[in-house]
Amino acid sequence: MRITLQQALVIPILLTSISSCTKSESNISGDNTTLEEEESEESEEQESVPQYVGQTGLIAFSKSCGFLTGGEHEARFVDSFSDCQATCYAALSCESASYLVCQVVYELPEAERLALRDCLETCRIESSFACGDGTTTSSANVCDLEQDCLNGSDEVDCSNHPNTFQCDDGELIWYDFRCDTGTPDCVDGSDEMNCASYENVFVCDDPEQILALDYRCDGGTPDCDDGSDEQGCDNPALAFQCGDGSYTHPSFQCDGSDDCDNGADETGCASLTCPSPELELPER
Question: Could you tell me which CATH number the domain at 127-156 has?
Answer without folding.
Answer: 4.10.400.10
